[in-house]
Amino acid sequence: MSPKAIPAVRPSYQDRLTAAREGPVRLTSNENRMGLPQSVRKAIVEAFEDANIYPDDSGVFLTEALADRHGIEFEGIVHGHGSTDLLRMAVPSLAVGHSRIRLVMADPTFEQIAGYAEPYGVDLLHVPLERPSWAHDIDAMRQAVDEGSDPALVYICNPNNPTGSLTPVPPLEEWILEAPESHLFVIDEAYFEYVDDPRYRSLDRLAWERPNVVVLRTFSKIYAMAGLRVGYAVAHPHTAARLKQFKSGRGPSHTSNMAALTALADGQIIRRALDANRESKGIVLEVLDELGLGHIESHTNFVMHDVHGDVPLYVERMEEAGFLVGRPFPSVPSYNRVSLGTPAEMRSWADTLRSFRERGWV
Ligand SMILES: Cc1ncc(COP(=O)(O)O)c(C=O)c1O
């Protein structure tokens, strides 16, 4: 839809949408800059035909397709408004009925779940990522949790945002298998499709088999559907039923469900995104190398890299030059996270970085 098609009730909306489209290149939220393929656009337009009815049927179709994809039964899928909706549901699924819970998470990591946990009376335990691997420090997380007795929510983002790093699966799996039932492991696999590394695999099977672990996936990243809000959890039927108690309304719209179903069936989307991502990453790594700026090995669609100095100032300068880049992460000083846009966008970003070097800014 063109911004011009928005009714002129509030012209400011129109201005802001136009500005968002025509303003700086968004290399800030790890979205897929390739946009939606034709197959999904067509499905969205066709779905408007049924916009007058509740999305119950399409929600069922999507759930069935996801269960097939993971080789599990229908009861093991809970879908919601993006995977953050599932993060939101996971908190009360553990916390309701307890006066306090603990939330153990890495530093740095994707912080959203901490905000959802706050109203429930949570003791927040941050455990730094290991260096130099930037993997979750499973031993230290385990130790932190073993010290208390309140139920524990363990959040593991693998691969991790904002570092793009991997956590090897075997020690994590061992912990899950040995942990008491009062622990709930939330494994966020938002960037699963980007990983090409033999040390990595999904924990979806374990989530289906054991009640103390859920795996989260999203259509917001590789499927380029961040604005359509579809994500889901893979869980044991008991855990899934508990999560569903905290669902908001009827789940994503019919349009979003049909877009996700079509995206799943389109064999080209992932290949196309991975090809572009590989090329864009190559452009980024080449300029970082050329300028002697270090980076963390990325298994995702973003790269965390050195900018040699004041990150807020760097972010401001990048915006002036036409690029929105990641916010500062205090535990990784002097580093910035850049999302991988199209190869053309990344060539232009790389030239900007070179010009910053000429001015002595990085
Ligand atoms: C690790 C992680 N999980 C979840 C999300 C949000 O996903 P969704 O759009 O599905 O809510 C993000 C978005 O940046 C993310 O990085």
Question: What distinguishing features does this structure have?
Answer:
single chain, 362 residues, alpha/beta, Aspartate Aminotransferase, domain 1, Aspartate Aminotransferase, domain 2, 2 domains, 7-stranded mixed beta sheet, 13 helices, binds pyridoxal-5'-phosphate
Secondary-structure map with pairings?
Layout lengths: L10 H12 L2 E3 L10 H10 L8 H15 L6 E4 L2 H13 L5 E7 L4 H6 L4 E7 L9 H9 L5 E6 L11 H10 L4 E6 L15 H6 L3 E6 L12 E4 L2 H8 L9 H12 L2 H24 L10 E5 L4 H10 L2 E3 L9 E5 L3 H16 L4
Parallel strand pairs: 1-10, 3-4, 3-5, 5-6, 6-7
Antiparallel strand pairs: 2-8, 7-8, 9-11
Helix pairs in contact: 2-10, 3-10, 4-9, 11-13
The structure holds pyridoxal-5'-phosphate.
Verbal overview:
With 362 residues, the chain is of the alpha/beta class. It folds into two domains: 3-30 and 268-358, Aspartate Aminotransferase, domain 1; 39-265, Aspartate Aminotransferase, domain 2 (3-Layer(aba) Sandwich). It is 42% helix and 15% strand. The protein is built from 13 helices and eleven strands. It has helices at residues 11-22, 38-47, 56-70, 83-95, 112-117, 138-146, 169-178, 204-209, 237-244, 254-265, 268-291, 311-320, 343-358; strands at 25-27, 77-80, 101-107, 122-128, 152-157, 183-188, 213-218, 231-234, 302-306, 323-325, 335-339. The strands form three sheets. It has a seven-stranded mixed beta sheet with strand order 2-8-7-6-5-3-4, sandwiched between helices. A two-stranded parallel ribbon has the order 1-10. Strands 9-11 form a two-stranded antiparallel ribbon. Helix 5 (112-117) links the parallel strand 3 and strand 4. The two termini are 39 Å apart. The mean pLDDT is 94. Bound molecules: pyridoxal-5'-phosphate.
